[in-house]
Amino acid sequence: MSSKIAAGPKIGDKMSDGTIYAGISPETNKPMYATSADAPLTMTFNKAKEYAAKLDAHGHQDWRIPTKAELNALFNNRAAIGGFNAIGPGTAGWYWSASPGNNWEAQRFTDGFQDDPSMEDGRSSLRCVR
Question: What's the count of helices (H) and strands (E) in the chain, helices before strands?
Fold first, then answer.
């Protein structure tokens, strides 16, 4: 008699609600899900916060900007998750993060470099998580 243990989702799996399983959050140690696509335009950090707070996607309203560690996990699994713009012109290949104590920072998805844009009007892409 063999017993099979049900395996959980794999990073990059599309869930029944349309979200993408992005692994275990390094911040919360709970499953992390991402939207299936980036926000439609690059935007300032403040606009990104507003966008995430108002986002109603895949039947959920608890979307947010990923923390720096969560964004790095998205970067490390970008091939499996898919849809990231790593080669966009200007700031399109950069993604916003938000962390307590470190209000905002962006990460370049061509090589993983993280930097504080230090610009009030700096724009980056956004992939929301929950």
Answer: 3, 5
Could you tell me if residue 68 is inside a domain?
yes
Look up tokens 């243990």; give the residue. 5
Number of domain units in the chain: 1
* Domain range for 26: 20-115
127 falls within a domain: no
Max Cα separation, the chain? 64
User: What is the pLDDT tens value at each position of the chain, 130 positions in all?
Assistant: 555 556 789 999 999 999 999 999 999 999 999 999 999 998 988 899 999 999 999 999 999 999 999 999 999 999 999 999 887 666 668 999 987 655 678 898 988 888 876 544 588 899 999 9
